[in-house]
Amino acid sequence: MTDFKPIIKVLEEAYEIPHLQATRKISALLPYNYYETDKHFPVLYLQDGQNLFNPMSPFGDWAIDQSLAKLAEQGMSDIIVIAIDHGEDERISEYLPYYHPRYGEGKGNFYIQFIIEKLIPYINSNYRTLPDFQNTGIGGSSLGGLISLHAGLSNPGVFGKMMIFSPSLWIAKTIFNQTESFQPLQKSKIYLYSGGNESAEHLPNAQKLEAIFREKMVENHAIEFHFSVNEIGKHAEIYWKHEFPKAVKWLYF
């Protein structure tokens, strides 16, 4: 499997985010054979980069490098993953899309602006990507799942794929209204996951979100939707680690 491991490139340890007056470490996981081919690849932008392929992460990690290697071994290597580190103490604020009485205004829209206006053009200019809507995805877990969902809903012409794991919908109930008014411009693929053993609100909120998407599909909106539930799943990286390859397969292959 070692031969199929993705090539990990650190774009910058302190990539400038003018929209937030901050810097972040951003990494690219390229297909193992990226430099041996002239192919172009779809891209998945993932939040919480610290927890994606670092076994020393305090809360554990998704081990996406291992999952990508296993997928590549099965002939599914055509994907580039961009991992964006979170802002540590600023994480809640930067992943919060709306005003919250406890956490304030939220900088989520500025964060999404950064991804769309600066990061995506940079990646498309420096790597062999398939830059169209159908081949551009965004995803994350918890608050990272919330901001990824908001990004997809509020930019229906940018992100054709959404990987939403255990989204923290409790902190931003406006997201339900936003989902109801979502008008995909083209076929959008949405993969939603929730554990049954997270907080009391997590699974019911995810089921409420599912119901809205299902209704939109009945109304013939251009949505392809998959809802995955692990009844014993807790709000933890180990469960998102197991869900990641399933989601990648469904969304991209």
UniProtKB/TrEMBL annotation:
The record's keywords, sorted A to Z, are:
Hydrolase
* GO molecular function, a single term: hydrolase activity
Look up the domain of life of the source.
Bacteria
Pfam families linked: Esterase (PF00756)
What InterPro entries would the database entry show? AB_hydrolase_fold, Esterase-like, Mycobacterial_A85_antigen
Keyword Cell inner membrane appears in the UniProt entry: no
Which PANTHER family does this one have?
Answer: ENTEROCHELIN ESTERASE-RELATED (PTHR48098), FERRI-BACILLIBACTIN ESTERASE BESA (PTHR48098:SF6)
User: This chain belongs to which protein, by name?
Assistant: Alpha/beta hydrolase
